[in-house]
């Protein structure tokens, strides 16, 4: 089966989604073609997931499909963009029909939820890895970036943190938990839901934003560096789920919330006067700190005293901090 | 060194190229942002190159950088698009500074030649592979696709074929050749120059086009299938280089020209009245056949009789023909 046939056969649902306004030409030619309405910019992000690095070896293909696309779309949410389409470069040791079918079903499920369409792809034989490139649109000049946090802004996150990191012993089969707890944590690892609605609502309001993938402290460090400010986080305000607290205990849960990766929640800085409006709209906005003069990220305990953090996130290649 | 630092450090030249009009935000945030002039569409293509599959294990990193980007941009040429930018997802077993520096230098050399800018990336630890996604712009409705070849059109290619396939024994170190021959063939393998000028000149003229990556016969099959026509190729008209003929002999050279992969020359169908104009402009246009009623690709020998072809190109995954 040729490359296009393989994609057409297994990924038909994702590539024919009714979503994907702006796709002038989809799969099947040398390039896909996108159109942008006047006054909009195209947001683009590329992510690679490698077996044994970003997910356990021999993962459930259905869950892998969901996770790979969710993780990638999260970058669009972080910019306040509306999804249009994505390309999938899939490298596989062999093309097993059952595997491909389940993977495509997971991918399609996330594509439908996020209203995004598969517009191109490449299939290659090799060690299992995936590279997804996602495309979205955002009104010109309105994209949320990491640069722009202002002294006095609130520091907020889009919900409970640490669940995905806390789920790792379950993902790896090293520990077990009662079904309700296990299901909640595993869902946050395998099916991260990009906060698209929140990101779009923050356009014109948040002064800086990103999605938390390397851990709260590390990613807040990125906002602080790009904006030339300090971020102050009150440890007690970092939201943790009941499932994570039940599974890991308070100390480990807190560490997951601060330094665990793979949250794919938004972190953002916000002028305080926008807070009531967002909360009244039912959006998941949790204030965890503020923007101050200075640099870097400072974590305060319940007594308002700085806490030392030995590790603050996950890094590929090397040890120096971003 | 963090992901952005790594990219900024080694890929500074490629990411700061003066080229890349339309890049509103480059490397360093969750997404890059592109702008499109009114009346233009965005062309997008994704390619993965895996060590040991698409290039020999332990390749010269400088040459790999050139080749990976050249191969990817060739898809933009095939659509008649003008390059804007590209993303690079680089998976490496380890981040060796010398390797990265040489790879980035090769990548940058091709980026400068093609006026394209690195706008985003991802670095991951794992078995060596690269996924590049390239972006170009093309006036709305003017992109060259595989669909549209008309009965009576000429079938043309953009120059000598088979050199890259013929170079494989040299690439793999299995054979040697005199320097002039070896240099010519190796350059066609390691530094494929996308036919951007030709592709852009074909807009509004060629009725169908693609770049030859799987071999002439296989790729002409794609045009025939997409357009619902037959393509007739006169074997004696398929252009072969002096270097390939000297190295491989006529029989093997012809087989490389017909079925070898990795040419990255354009193949296109053209109403005959456009031919003089293109040739007078000095563009590399070689007529090798014509479009006829029917389906599939037929190869004719010098006596005008059909030639049986046991193999007609390279396919990933499985054996059925496209």
UniProtKB/TrEMBL annotation, chains A, B:
Q: What is its EC number?
A: 2.7.4.16
Pathway assigned in UniProt: Cofactor biosynthesis; thiamine diphosphate biosynthesis; thiamine diphosphate from thiamine phosphate: step 1/1
GO terms of molecular function: ATP binding; magnesium ion binding; thiamine-phosphate kinase activity
Any Pfam family the entry gives: AIRS_C
Q: Tell me the GO BP annotations in alphabetical order.
A: thiamine biosynthetic process; thiamine diphosphate biosynthetic process
Looking up NCBIfam families in the UniProt record yields:
thiL
Q: What name goes with this protein? A: Thiamine-monophosphate kinase
- PANTHER family for the chain: THIAMINE-MONOPHOSPHATE KINASE
Q: What does it catalyze?
A: thiamine phosphate + ATP = thiamine diphosphate + ADP
What is the source species?
Answer: Pseudomonas guineae
All residue ranges annotated as the PurM-like C-terminal domain in the record: 150-298
Q: Which gene encodes it?
A: thiL
Note from the entry: Reaction mechanism of ThiL seems to utilize a direct, inline transfer of the gamma-phosphate of ATP to TMP rather than a phosphorylated enzyme intermediate.
Ligand binding (Mg(2+) 2): 47, 75
UniProt xrefs under Gene3D superfamilies? PurM-like C-terminal domain, PurM-like, N-terminal domain
- Task of the protein: Catalyzes the ATP-dependent phosphorylation of thiamine-monophosphate (TMP) to form thiamine-pyrophosphate (TPP), the active form of vitamin B1.
Instruction: Report the enzyme's class at the first EC level.
Output: transferase
- Which positions bind ATP? 121-122, 146, 213
> Which residues belong to any copy of the PurM-like N-terminal domain?
28-138
Sites binding substrate sit at 54, 262, 314
Is Transferase there in the keyword field? Answer: yes
Please list the residues that bind Mg(2+) 5.
214
Binding residues for Mg(2+) 3? 30, 75, 211
Give the keywords, sorted.
ATP-binding, Kinase, Magnesium, Metal-binding, Nucleotide-binding, Thiamine biosynthesis, Transferase
Annotated residues for binding of Mg(2+) 4: 30, 45, 75
* Family note: Belongs to the thiamine-monophosphate kinase family.
Binding positions for Mg(2+) 1?
46-47, 122
Q: Which residues cross the membrane?
A: none
């Amino acid at each position: 089966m040729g490359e296009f046939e393989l994609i057409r056969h297994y990924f038909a649902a994702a590539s024919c989604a009714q979503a994907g306004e702006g796709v002038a030409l989809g799969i099947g030619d040398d390039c896909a073609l996108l159109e942008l309405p006047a006054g909009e910019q195209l947001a683009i992000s590329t992510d690679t997931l490698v077996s044994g690095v970003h997910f356990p070896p021999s993962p459930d293909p259905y869950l892998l499909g969901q996770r790979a696309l969710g993780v990638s779309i999260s970058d669009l949410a972080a910019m306040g963009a509306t999804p249009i389409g994505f390309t999938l470069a899939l490298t596989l040791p062999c093309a097993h029909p059952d595997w491909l079918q389940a993977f495509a079903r997971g991918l399609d499920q996330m594509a439908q939820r996020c209203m995004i369409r598969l517009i191109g792809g490449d299939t290659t034989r090799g060690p299992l890895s995936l590279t997804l490139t996602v495309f979205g649109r955002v009104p010109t000049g309105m994209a949320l970036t990491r640069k722009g946090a202002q002294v006095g802004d609130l520091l907020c996150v889009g919900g409970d943190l640490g669940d995905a990191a806390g789920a790792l012993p379950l993902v790896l089969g090293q520990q077990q938990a009662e079904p309700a707890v296990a299901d909640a944590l595993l869902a946050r690892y395998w099916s991260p839901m990009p906060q698209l609605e929140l990101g779009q609502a923050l356009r014109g309001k948040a002064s800086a934003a990103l999605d938390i993938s390397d851990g709260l402290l590390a990613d807040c460090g990125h906002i602080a560096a790009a904006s030339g400010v300090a971020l102050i986080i009150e440890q007690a305000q970092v939201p943790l789920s009941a499932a994570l607290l039940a599974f890991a205990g308070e100390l480990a849960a807190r560490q997951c919330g601060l330094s665990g990766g793979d949250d794919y929640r938004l972190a953002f800085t916000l002028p305080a006067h926008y807070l009531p409006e967002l909360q009244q709209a039912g959006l998941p906005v949790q204030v965890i700190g503020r923007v101050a003069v200075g640099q870097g990220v400072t974590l305060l305990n319940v007594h308002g005293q700085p806490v030392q953090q030995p590790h603050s996130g996950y890094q590929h290649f090397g040890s120096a901090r971003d």
